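> run fold Ureide permease 2
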Amino acid sequence: MFLVESKSAAIVCMLVSLLFLGTWPAILTLLERRGRLPQHTYLDYSITNFLAAVLIALTFGQIGGSTPSMPNFLTQLTQDTWPCVLMAMGGGLFLSFGNVSIQYAWAFVGLSVAQVVTSSIAVVIGTTLNYFLDDKINKASILFPGVACFLTAVLLGSAVHSSNATDNVEKLRSFHENLKETEKVPEITTDEEAPSAKDIMENVDVDNVCAEEAKKAGTADFIIAVESQRAIKVVGESKVVGMSITLFAGVCFALFSPAFNLATNDQWHFLKEGVPHLVIYTAFFYFSLAFVVTAVFLNVTFLYYPLLNLPKSSLKEYLRDGNGRGWAIAAGLLCGFGNGLQFIGGQAAGYAAADAVQALPLVSTFWGVLFFGEYRRSSKRTYLLLVCMLVMFSVAVALLLASAGQRKTVASKINRLQHQNTKPMENYTHATFDF
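> ok
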């Protein structure tokens, strides 16, 4: 069985995990903006996510021989580890609910802010829990200042969202006023002095949008063009709804890692005496199994979401909807391998330090700005808040990585004892005793 025991190898796993986990949200956002129903995308994504966990278990989990203390994946499937199996599946449930929620949070508050807020909540709660569950192997003097930086990033993320939303409203109002002057749009009857973004979107004729301007990210024409084709209509919707969904997703993300930690290390002593702990790959298999079962159940049972005014769908329509399926499959594979590498690194260096992969908003923000035009042509205030948020987030990630410890696994203890037993006798000092 493949194991990572050194701190440097664990950090490499975390960095690769960071890249993978920061990229798959951008792919799902891309598909939603192109009009593909999120429930169709999520089914493709969750199924391939599970297949990635199976592939990892049958390769890394089967490398080398199986020992009583460290059984390989297939051997452990038949062992009496059900208390920890259920804990691993509980972690999968939390992740599934979090991912179902965040796909709508992306639409309401934007990819960059949603990822920052949920990841920061996950670090503030999840990292604290993991620190105590891991018997404080991480350096508290470095870890908790990093947690404080993540909490600061939450506040900055909310400010960025509010400032950017205000900028977009002003752009849409200017667009409406220009159309009124050319008599291309009817007067909007509203009690407010100025029409809201929702009023404008409900009354604007998409034919009035300039094709050339619609290609320029950050313009009012661009905002209207994107909104007209996306699956989830959110312009002008309540900020409270968007932030509530985002906060709920963040709490779910905060709990899945501690649950996985308990499943693999059994700090609460669920297992009977003599039964080996769940190895990473077995726990990850059950974790992903619960994830995919929950995702399929939610999407098959609720193939439309009244809160978001999504059109009703069916399994037949899902099977026929092949548009963008390849991208959804790629997103599932990236998430599956990203989570697997996060857990492998966490088992070696502590799950509190592994929460540094919550730096995925840095990657997601890059994709959001590069491909989706987020924050283009915004105000100086929005840009300043965005830079402060990303800087604070980067500092927090650096501190979490610096706090990494090294877990003393069974295998490392055995290797240390074997090394001590092979030392030459002259290295020992002989003593005489008088009786």
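The CA atoms of residues 171 and 220 lie 5 Å apart.
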